Amino acid sequence: MTLKSPTPHTPKIDISLLQTFHLVAKTGSFSAAARELNISYQSAANHVRRLEQLYGTQLVKAEKGSREITLTAPGRAFHASLGPELDTILARISLLMRDVHSVMRFGVPQALFHHFFPEIVRQVRESHPDTELNFFERDTVLASMMVNGELDACVCERFFGDPSISQVLLGEYRLALVYPQQWGVTLSSPEDIAAFNQRDFITYEPGQTVRSRGIDFLSNYLGGPPANLTTVSGSTSVMELVQAGLGYAIVAEWVASAAEDKVKWMPLDDMQTVKVYFASPAFLSQEPVLVHTREICRNVMGFKS
Known about the structure:
Elements: H1 15-27, H2 30-37, H3 41-55, E1 60-62, E2 69-71, H4 73-98, E3 103-107, H5 110-127, E4 132-136, H6 142-147, E5 153-156, E6 165-173, E7 175-180, E8 200-204, H7 209-222, E9 228-232, H8 235-243, E10 248-252, H9 253-257, E11 263-267, E12 274-281, H10 288-301
């Protein structure tokens, strides 16, 4: 059977699909390849299925009830043509990341950066003093920046669901409602939030996880979405407005607990926690500098997982 080449209308093949297939062929299983790439078993299987769709033929086969796979005749031919060239490409990428003048482009939401990243940067700098660090605090565009190759890694609060991006769960955090002390009220349960029905809700710009979840949560206690919204771009601005008595907000619990005396806060135990992920291009998921940085993030943030 002849392996078909992609047609001119077929999307370009992502190198992560080739890398996954290469590892599946070498190890003989999706699970082993998934461990190597730090992705899920299902993601590894999906990568290979996508590659098969692009080439219009089956590349691997598995016995029913077994996780071990074998290559089909087209799969063996395809893998033989990939081997050394793909290894060379991946090795060169790894060398670039370790180059003495290498640059790590890192995306992170502003709240996470302000609270955790001074210590993370200190530890990364101690371990990799020759790596230039470029940070982008732009939560709403992290997904597109990753897909477009504009970032080498990011810490994010969303699961992108893109096969070209590897995401590892670092943990999760709770949210809290913060409000000005000068209002002279004390909330003891979410039912008390109805008292804020005519107050301004200070929140993040559209597209941010905490904004959408906060509006949904408040709607249950206000009889509908908050009537008055004030939108800002980051947690620092949110807290400044709350401290000035201009409204209430929903923020990460660790932002609320670090607030000054001008603010009161109530943990929202019934609200869905926010998951925090470390993301990188799939083909760089085992790059040593990124792996070490991921573990530094996990240890410093100390979220429950």
